[in-house]
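Narrative of accomplishments. A recurring question from our advisory board has been how the design workflow behaves on a single, concrete structure rather than in aggregate. To address it, we present the structure tokens for one chain from the evaluation set, followed by the sequence designed for it. No filtering or post-editing was applied between the two.
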């Protein structure tokens, strides 16, 4: 048996022989699957390529050369050779062969086949997965003990029976030798040097020199055994807050995460950095992993909320044996019904607080801390989370600024249909497109079926917006056919899902429509909102760029980097990806119904920078951590600003300038994506959609400020200087007093003067009795000829402004994205009756500007039938005739006349006419 595997098996202590073999196989499988992943899609033929690849994987050069001499230029065999020693295929490689290979020094860490130099951090990935458990350390008595064994044998120190901290493990000696595992979180208190230990763990495992200050804050809460709520920007590094405790203590950290793909991704990343981790849940193919995890074989256990509820008892045992350092709840906004991604099972996670306390588990010295983390949560959502999870009153709140000073936000009007692709994607094609539309040699990632997708969403031009709310979606969310899917992978012969290895993708839990929810059990206003000052900013992630720098960057071209386009429907992912591929852009569609092998490949190529554009639904979601994403394009209205900001936050994680563009049909009111929702949920979903709609309609307030303040943060900067509003400036203010008065006059006229304003709130509204905004707009057109051509779109914008000012309110008890049944308020009536001719200066909203820019087609007026009797219609008809009049002088004469060369021929009737006209001029 190889010395390496001997060591490994030794570290597993009480593991039975058959189990050992399984573990060995498992080690090898992981390593091989990693190597396969690294090689996927490439035909490695030469030694050089294999060497380069294996160096990249972190293997030592001399070992690679030896292995290649022995097995030839095959990466799999070489990896196997190195891991097993002398080319043995089984895990039971003999000690002798191994001794030969490692020169008899295999027991010493530095001599293992994997280099541990910082330049080869990834090298540790394969074996450190096990070495983290294999590491030896000196005990107080100087004995060399096996850390993993000790973590089984020596109960962890948050267990009452074992209070004594083993200070020796903190010694410089161990720090130098890369051993930072200490046995008790008791040893940590602020000021006792834990920060330095964290820094060296960070350096060792991840190559980072220091913690960010919000990470420090979160960890200091954990060190003090406190619950902690971390609300930090997307991509700021929240994962480290819960990964570090596992590395510091040797105890297990349990992480609750909503998506299998996210867990899988993080496990692979951790394995690469030498941290043992596993994920549990429906996507875990190996049913021994759960058992192993419960026996403490992994430092970090990722688990979905559905599964953890079943594992309470085994986890209590684990807390007693190896010890649990922390429960981390990632993407914790999923707890709240007021959030954008509610998952009912997240709500039941209060079981963690209930079952892991000192009162429940007598061996604990203190409650196992909870750490809740998210990037997007409004004040209301935060309160809901704290309450729902039963987090302690002393929960530490770690809040970073939402402001990302390198993101350029903008909103553009677009029909977001195939007719607008050319205009909207021209810039992308210019940047990425390599050739003209040829249809040849294009990178096909999409269904051929999508060729004949018709433009069903194109019906609603600006002139047709009177019928509010035809969906932007040609929604095929639910009915995507098998045929379509299989066609998608027709060019990928290797698409069939292979054996169930750890490295295979498991994405079945991923969703790209909202989860259905059936336990909407918290009534509105049930929880009292804590005073605002509880949510103080403790830190900012990266200091925002200074105003001068932002000014410089506002029109700077983007560096090269990939783009993600988010669309609302699966069909559009296919359609747009195909469109871009046709122009030579390396684009791929991504949605939950596509084959997993395709999705895996998209992930891989996206991360390897071989894919330029991913066109995705929200399934390409949480946890996408790529630093150089240069553009996030939303093509169609998002469902909430939380979702929008989270997705937009995937841009520019390297701190360099990045664009976040929202293309939305500003002439249409967005609609909710279909989902099962209770009445309350529907209401809440409309509120969120409405906030998003208003973000798009805004023309005067800095976009970054709007977003940051939406999350309850005081922006603190005047404006971002980078968004479209800051760069282009707001539109000119307009005095709309006359329009506002007329509107209020018509609305209040309907209800009659002196009507009881409160009657509508007496035990519920009078449903459906008031006229709609559309009817009011028609009335105005009839009564005020001056406004005959004013579009409903314009009145909608005005209604929103007046609602915000408090002059009108929604008369329906349903929530709408935009006010639908306006009623006057007392303030509105006062405004109307005020004798003073006060000006009413406002910034016109995006739809108002749009409607004034666009000439409305006459034929769409129902009043057009009134004919010439109506002065406004007469004026417009004459205008049309003037514009449409054909030139009376033939072109050739006009030209000649202009040149003064030819006089009209008076002999012909045409010439005489021309002469006559010239004379009259
Ligand atoms: N202290 C640090 N120094 C430098 N880089 C760091 C540090 N901490 C984290 N990072 C890097 O930040 C990136 C994002 O980390 P992570 O995935 O944890 O972000 P996140 O906040 O969880 O994002 P999301 O909201 O998308 O889940 C990672 O690539 C990580 O390596
Ligand atoms: Mg994260």
């Amino acid at each position: 048996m190889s010395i390496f595997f001997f060591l490994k098996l030794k570290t597993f202590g009480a593991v039975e022989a058959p189990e050992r073999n399984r573990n060995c196989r498992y080690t090898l499988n992981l390593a091989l699957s990693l190597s396969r992943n690294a090689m996927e899609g490439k035909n490695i033929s030469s030694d050089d390529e294999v060497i380069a690849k294996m160096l990249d994987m972190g293997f030592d050069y001399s070992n690679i050369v030896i292995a290649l001499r022995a097995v030839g230029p095959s990466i799999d065999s070489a990896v196997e050779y190195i891991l097993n020693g002398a080319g043995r295929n089984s895990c039971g490689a003999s000690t002798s062969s191994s001794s030969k290979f490692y020169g008899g020094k295999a027991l010493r860490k530095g001599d293992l086949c994997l280099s541990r130099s910082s330049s080869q951090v990834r090298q540790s990935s394969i074996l450190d997965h096990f070495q983290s458990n294999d590491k030896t350390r000196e005990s107080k008595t100087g004995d060399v003990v096996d850390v993993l064994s000790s973590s089984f044998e020596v109960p962890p120190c948050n267990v009452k029976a074992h209070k004594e901290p083993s200070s020796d493990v903190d010694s410089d000696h161990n720090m130098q030798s890369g051993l930072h595992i200490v046995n008790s979180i008791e040893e940590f208190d602020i000021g006792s040097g834990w920060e330095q230990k964290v820094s060296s763990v960070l350096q060792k495992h991840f190559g980072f020199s220091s913690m960010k200050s919000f990470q420090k804050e979160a960890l200091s809460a954990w060190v003090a055994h406190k619950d902690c709520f971390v609300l930090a920007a997307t991509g700021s590094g929240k994962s480290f807050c819960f990964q570090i405790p596992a590395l510091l203590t040797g105890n297990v950290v349990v992480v609750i995460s909503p998506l299998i793909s996210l867990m899988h991704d993080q496990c692979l990343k951790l394995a690469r950095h030498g941290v043992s981790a596993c994920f549990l849940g429906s996507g875990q193919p190996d049913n021994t992993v759960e058992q192993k995890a419960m026996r403490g074989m992994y430092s970090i256990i990722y688990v979905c909320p559905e599964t953890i509820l079943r594992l309470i008892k085994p986890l209590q045992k684990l807390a007693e044996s190896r010890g649990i350092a922390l429960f981390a709840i990632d993407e914790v906004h999923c707890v709240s019904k007021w959030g954008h991604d509610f998952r009912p099972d997240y709500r039941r996670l209060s079981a963690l607080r209930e079952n892991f306390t000192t009162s429940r588990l007598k061996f604990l010295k203190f409650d196992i801390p909870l750490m809740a983390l998210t990037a997007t949560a409004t004040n209301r959502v935060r309160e809901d989370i704290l309450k729902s999870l039963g987090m302690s009153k002393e929960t530490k709140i770690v809040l970073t600024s939402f402001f990302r000073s390198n993101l350029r936000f903008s909103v553009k009007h677009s029909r977001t249909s195939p007719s607008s692709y050319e205009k909207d994607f021209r810039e992308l094609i210019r940047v990425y497109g390599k050739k003209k539309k040829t249809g040849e040699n294009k990178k096909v990632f999409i269904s051929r079926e999508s060729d004949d997708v018709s433009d069903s969403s194109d019906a609603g031009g600006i002139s047709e917006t009177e019928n509010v709310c035809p969906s932007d979606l040609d929604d095929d969310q639910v009915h995507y056919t098998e045929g379509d899917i299989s066609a998608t992978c027709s060019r990928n012969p290797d698409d069939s899902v292979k054996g169930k290895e750890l490295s295979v993708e498991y994405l079945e839990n991923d969703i790209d429509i909202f989860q259905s929810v059936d336990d909407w059990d918290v009534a509105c206003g049930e929880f009292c909102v804590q005073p605002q000052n509880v949510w103080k900013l403790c830190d900012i992630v990266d200091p925002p760029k200074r105003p001068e720098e932002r000014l410089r960057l506002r029109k700077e071209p983007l560096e090269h980097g990939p783009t993600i386009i988010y669309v609302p429907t699966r069909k559009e992912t296919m359609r747009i990806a195909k469109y871009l591929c046709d122009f030579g852009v390396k684009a791929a569609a991504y949605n939950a119904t596509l084959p997993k092998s395709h999705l895996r490949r998209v992930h891989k190529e996206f991360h390897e920078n071989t894919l330029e554009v991913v066109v995705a639904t929200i399934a390409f979601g949480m946890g996408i951590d790529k630093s150089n994403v240069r553009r996030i394009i939303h093509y169609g209205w998002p469902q909430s600003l939380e979702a929008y900001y989270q997705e937009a936050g995937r841009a520019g994680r390297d701190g360099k300038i990045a664009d976040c563009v929202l293309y939305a049909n500003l002439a249409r009111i967005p609609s909710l994506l279909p989902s099962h929702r209770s009445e309350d949920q529907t209401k809440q979903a409309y509120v969120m959609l409405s906030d998003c709609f208003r973000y798009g309609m805004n023309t005067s307030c800095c976009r970054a400020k709007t977003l940051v303040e939406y999350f309850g943060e005081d922006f603190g900067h005047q404006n971002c200087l980078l968004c479209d509003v800051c760069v282009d400036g707001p539109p000119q203010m307009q005095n709309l007093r006359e329009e506002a008065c007329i509107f209020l006059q018509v609305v209040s006229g309907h209800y009659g003067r002196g009507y009881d304003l409160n009657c509508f709130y007496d035990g519920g509204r009078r449903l459906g009795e008031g006229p709609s905004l559309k009817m009011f707009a028609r009335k105005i057109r009839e009564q005020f000829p001056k406004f005959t051509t004013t579009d409903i779109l314009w009145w909608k914008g005005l209604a929103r402004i007046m609602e915000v000012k408090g002059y009108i309110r929604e008369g329906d008890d349903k929530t709408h994205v935009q006010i639908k049944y306006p009623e006057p308020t007392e303030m509105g009536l006062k405004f109307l009756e005020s004798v003073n001719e006060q000006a009413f200066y406002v910034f016109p909203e995006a739809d108002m500007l749009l409607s004034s820019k666009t000439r409305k087609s006459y034929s769409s007026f129902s009043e057009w039938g009134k004919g010439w009797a109506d002065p406004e219609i007469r004026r417009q008809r004459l205008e049309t005739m003037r514009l449409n009049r054909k030139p009376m002088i033939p072109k050739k004469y006009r030209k000649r006349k202009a040149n003064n060369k030819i006089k009209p021929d008076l002999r012909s009737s045409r010439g005489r006419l021309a002469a006559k006209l010239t004379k009259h001029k």
